[in-house]
Amino acid sequence: MRRGPIPDDDDDAVPRKGKVVTTTGGWPELLRCVTTKPPPILLDELIAEILLRIPARSLLRLRNSVCSSWRTLISSSQFAKDHLRRSMAVDPALTHPLIAYFARACRYPKIGVFSVRSVMENPPQEPTKVVSYEGRRYRIIIGSCNGLLCLHDEERGEDGFIISHRAMLWNPCTGFTSQPLEIAGVLSICGFGYDHVNDKYKLLAVVRKKSGEPVTTRMFTFGPNSTWRTIQDFPHNYFDFHSGEYLERLAGLYLSGTGTLNWLLYSYSSFVKVISLDLVKETYSQFSLPSRDSHDNLLMEPKLGILRDCLAVCYETKKTHWTVWFMKDYGVPQSWTKLTTIPHHPLLVHSPSCVALQPIYMLKDVLLAVALSGKFVLCNLKDGSIDLPNINSSSDGMPRLLPLTQHACTRVFQLYHESLVSPSHFGLPSCSSEMRLIKPSL
C-alpha cells in the first residue's frame, strides 16, 4: 500500500494534538500526544478480552506490575477457566505444550521440564534446555489435566517396604501445589482427570491397605470438603495370570473433551481392548482396537497415546513398519483411522526390544516420539525423514542418568499444557514452596 505525503510540521493547515518530530529518514515519530480530552477508558469487558489473548506465563510475569484490579482479575478462578477454555478451543498457542519427567529407577526428588515447541522447531545447533524443580521427596507423576500435574510420593516402613502413598496437585507454571492427600494405602492402578460436567478434578485409585487384604477402588474429588468414596471395582487386574492379559501402564491417560481415563489392555496372543472410565458417571466401558495383520509380531507391545486431542495407538505391522491410528469418534471402534505408517529406520529400531514406538505429540506433519532405541525422534510424515532433537538435560539434577540425547527410557514423561489453574481455585489450601525451581549454575 502506497503512503501519502508526510504533512509538514510547520503547516498551519495541519491540526495539532501534540508535537510531531521527524526523524532523519523523514518518517514521523510521535513522542507524546497532549490533548484537552481525557484519555479513553477501556471497559472492563474489553480489558478482560485483551488479557485473555496473552499466554499464561506472560500473564504471570505481568501480574506483579499491573494495577490491583487487573491483578485481581488475572488471579481469579473464573479468568483461569476462561483463559483455559479460549486456549483449548480458539488459540492453542496461548498454552505452550511442555514435557515433565521424573527418574524411573534413581530416586531423585526432582522433576525436569522442557518445551515441546523448542524440541520440534529449534535447529540442531540450538539445544532445548531442561529446567529442574526440586521437591522435598521423590515423586512420581500420575497424570496431567488443564495445566495441573498430579504427583504421588510414598511412605516406607522400617523394613523399607512401601506402607502408604500420598497425592498432590502441582501447577509448574504458577508454582502452586496443594497440600498432600493421604491415600491410606498402597496405590496401584490410578488416574487423574477432570469432570467437565460438575467442574471437579478427580483421582481414581485402586488401593491395598495391607498385604493380603482385598483391594478397593476409590474416587477422590478435590475440593474444600472432599473425602474418598468407594466406587465400582476396576474391571481388570494389572496382570491376569490365567488369560495373560495385562495393562500397558498403571496410570490411565486423560483425554480432554471426553472426561475419560483410558488404559490399553493387551496380551501376547492378540490385541484386546481399551478400558475407559467416565469421570462424570464414574462408570467403565470397553472398546476394541484396530484389527491386526496375521503377520504382525504380537510380542511387540503396542503404545497408547493422545494425538491432536484424539486417542491414538501405535504398533508394529508385518515387522517392517509402525502404524499409528487415531480414533475420530471417541468410543466408536469403527472410527479408528490410520494416521500414518513409519518404516523401520536404524534410529527407530533396537534389538532386542518388545515395545512399540511411543507417540508423544504432533505438530503439523512432524511426530515427536520415543523410539525403541531409547531416544527422542522427530518423524517427518511428509517426506519420511527422521531427526534426533538436541535436548540439553545437564541441569536436570539427575547425574546418574544418561543424557536425554543418548537415552530417554530411564525417565518417565508426561505431556502437559501451561495454564493459570490453581489448587486454591477449587478450595484446596495451597503453597508455592513445595516444588522449587533450581537455577542452573553459570
TrEMBL record:
Residues forming the F-box domain are 42-83
Pfam family, any one? FBA_3
Query: Cross-referenced SMART domains, in alphabetical order?
Result: FBOX (SM00256)
Stated name of the protein: F-box domain-containing protein
Organism field: Arachis hypogaea (Peanut)
